[in-house]
Inverse folding.
């Protein structure tokens, strides 16, 4: 069981950013200027940050951006290396989707290696591979079955 926190404090946002720094900037070598953007502050009108704890300790994070009334863009999905492979990533996706019962479509741009993970979460890939921060990505979407 993991706990999902919708971030409302600077302290929890700092914990999310620490996970993203470890996973994307240090592990995957994504440049800091591309990883951190204008949505990474409390009170952003379209962004929600989620922090996930296991046994009280931070293990993962997800950032969601509202794209109008019907589409939620899911991104910055990260589980700390030592916590991977045990179902936490999928549980994080399930918990976040449940937070948005009115959204029609969940969309994301998946790193190529993560496509099978998102397929397990019910997402379907479409379109061509493209480069973002030098990493191969593909667009994926899922209809919200919880509506
Ligand atoms: C991608 C990531 C979030 C997956 O988290 P995780 O906790 O390891 O995933 P889970 O253990 O919940 O896996 C759920 C299912 O997907 C499968 N899966 C996970 N990663 C996979 C991979 N790279 N290739 C194939 N299958 C994968 C698991 O086997 C599991 O299948 P099952 O339900 O049949 O057992 C995690 O590896 C991560 O943070 N990676 C680094 C950051 C990253 O690349 N994020 C994605 C950016 S688009």
């Amino acid at each position: 069981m993991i706990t999902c926190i919708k971030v409302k404090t600077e302290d929890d946002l700092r914990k999310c950013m620490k996970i993203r720094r470890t996973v994307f900037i240090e592990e995957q070598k994504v440049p800091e200027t591309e990883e951190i953007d204008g949505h990474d502050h409390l009170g952003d009108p379209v962004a929600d940050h989620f922090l996930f704890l296991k046994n009280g300790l931070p293990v993962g994070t997800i950032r969601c951006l509202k794209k109008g009334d019907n589409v939620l863009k899911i991104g910055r999905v990260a589980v700390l290396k030592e916590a991977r492979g045990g179902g936490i990533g999928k549980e994080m996706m399930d918990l976040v989707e449940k937070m948005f019962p009115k959204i029609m479509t969940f969309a994301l741009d998946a790193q190529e290696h993560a496509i099978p993970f998102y397929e397990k979460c019910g997402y379907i890939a479409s379109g061509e591979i493209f480069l973002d921060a030098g990493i191969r990505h593909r667009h994926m979407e899922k209809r919200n079955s919880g509506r």
Summary: The domain at 3-143 is CATH 3.40.630.30 (Aminopeptidase).
